[in-house]
């Protein structure tokens, strides 16, 4: 199933672009679902019609869905939440406060993303268009499987065995917090496998891609540049950038001259920053973009008569290259600077940190024995040198 995830800074129009993409894709006879994971639920506003937690037909070949985050949390988190609540109650929190504290920030958006996996399993549609949360929240969610991997594979089994041994003794005293039952550990394992399944789908560059929606404004472009680097770090493919709300040539009023100059300047920056990724554009319309007619006009502007579903660009996030003295692991980290990059290696794992985000790369056996001899950043590529140390 072709999957396109739209994200961008809040207010740039990503929901409208996602809805417009679904309409355009369905015009060629495809069955398309557009799904919002954002708790703000702007998708119903874009279609100017109520949308619920079950897919609702909006037009020929187009269905829309807004997550019922409460039911998704109950389905995927209730057992873990119940245990964490008992720990907070043991510490003195009242029941209501304990239940609230047991919910991690960003859980709403996370469980919305789990629906991506379900729709892939059910395979009822030809394409899935995801209207994701704003960039910052989306990056945190997309990096979560990688962040959890070490804990789940290395630490969780040890904790599970330890809890089983200590539980009979802990139950006889009130000086220790309640220990999790084995079912809680099993629920945690299932939760990790579910979000890892989403990661597997969204990093499959044959079928899935991310599209960044921006306005030609300084702060918006700066955030998109950072997002592009971090998405490459975690191996999510970006196949297009959509620049929304550009002043059309028909606007001649001198009041907008400075806006036009600024947009032209930022467009040059966008083209320089994201090349060779395709840059799609949409003009600033003279009305609000809601309802099928307006969304259709937006789709025509963005895609200019072309099919929005094919992969518009494909490039690997990292590669392994043999050199005279060993190997180089090469990461495509466009826009990253050397001062932002921190590197370490332990055993078969290579740890790369760019800014506030970290990626753990499990090296193949042939490279695991090699030592990290240094790194360099050249033309948007991080090159990590691995040698035998001799």
From TrEMBL:
Q: Which reaction does it catalyse?
A: arsenite(in) + ATP + H2O = arsenite(out) + ADP + phosphate + H(+)
Annotated ranges, domain ArsA/GET3 Anion-transporting ATPase-like: 1-302
Q: Does the keyword Nucleotide-binding apply?
A: yes
Give, as one word, the top-level EC class.
translocase
Q: Which InterPro entries match?
A: ArsA/GET3_ATPase-like (IPR025723), ArsA_HSP20-like (IPR040612), ATPase_ArsA/GET3 (IPR016300), HSP20-like_chaperone (IPR008978), P-loop_NTPase (IPR027417)
Q: Which GO terms describe its molecular function?
A: ATP binding; ATP hydrolysis activity; ATPase-coupled arsenite transmembrane transporter activity
Protein role: Anion-transporting ATPase. Catalyzes the extrusion of arsenite.
Similarity-based family: Belongs to the arsA ATPase family.
* Name listed for the protein in its UniProt record: arsenite-transporting ATPase
């Amino acid at each position: 199933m072709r999957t396109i995830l739209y994200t961008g800074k809040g207010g740039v129009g990503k929901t409208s672009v996602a809805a417009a993409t679904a309409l355009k894709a369905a015009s060629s006879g495809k069955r398309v679902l557009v799904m919002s994971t954002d708790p703000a639920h702007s998708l119903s506003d874009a279609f100017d019609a109520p949308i619920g937690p079950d897919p609702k037909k909006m037009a020929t070949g187009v269905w829309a869905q807004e997550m019922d985050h409460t039911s998704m949390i109950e389905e995927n988190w209730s057992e873990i939440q119940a245990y964490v609540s008992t720990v907070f109650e043991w510490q003195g929190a009242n029941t209501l406060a304990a239940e609230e504290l047991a919910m991690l920030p960003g859980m709403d958006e996370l469980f919305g993303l789990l629906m991506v996996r379900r729709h892939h399993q059910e395979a009822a549609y030809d394409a899935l268009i995801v209207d994701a949360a704003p960039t910052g929240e989306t990056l945190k969610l997309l990096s979560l499987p990688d962040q959890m991997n070490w804990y789940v594979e290395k630490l969780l089994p040890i904790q599970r065995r330890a809890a089983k041994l200590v539980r009979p003794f802990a139950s006889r005293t009130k000086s220790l917090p309640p220990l999790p039952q084995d079912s809680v550990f099993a629920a945690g394992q299932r939760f990790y496998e579910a979000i890892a399944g989403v990661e597997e789908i969204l990093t499959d560059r044959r079928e899935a891609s991310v599209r960044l929606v921006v306005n030609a404004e300084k702060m918006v472009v700066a955030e998109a540049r950072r997002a592009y680097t971090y998405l490459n770090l975690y191996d999510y493919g970006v196949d297009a950038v959509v620049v929304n709300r550009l002043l059309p040539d028909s606007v001649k009023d001198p009041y907008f001259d400075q806006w036009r100059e600024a947009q032209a300047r930022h467009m040059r920056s966008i083209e320089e920053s994201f090349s060779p990724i395709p840059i799609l554009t949409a003009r600033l319309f003279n009305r609000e973009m809601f309802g099928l007619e307006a969304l259709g006009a937006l789709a025509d502007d963005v895609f200019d008569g072309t099919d929005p579903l094919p992969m518009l660009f494909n490039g690997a996030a990292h590669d392994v290259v043999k050199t005279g003295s060993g190997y180089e692991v090469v990461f495509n980290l466009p826009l990253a600077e050397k001062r932002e990059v921190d590197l370490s290696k332990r055993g078969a794992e290579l740890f790369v940190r760019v800014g506030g985000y970290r990626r753990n790369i499990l090296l193949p056996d042939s490279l695991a024995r090699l030592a990290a001899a240094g790194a360099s950043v050249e033309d948007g590529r991080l090159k990590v040198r691995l040698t035998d140390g001799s």
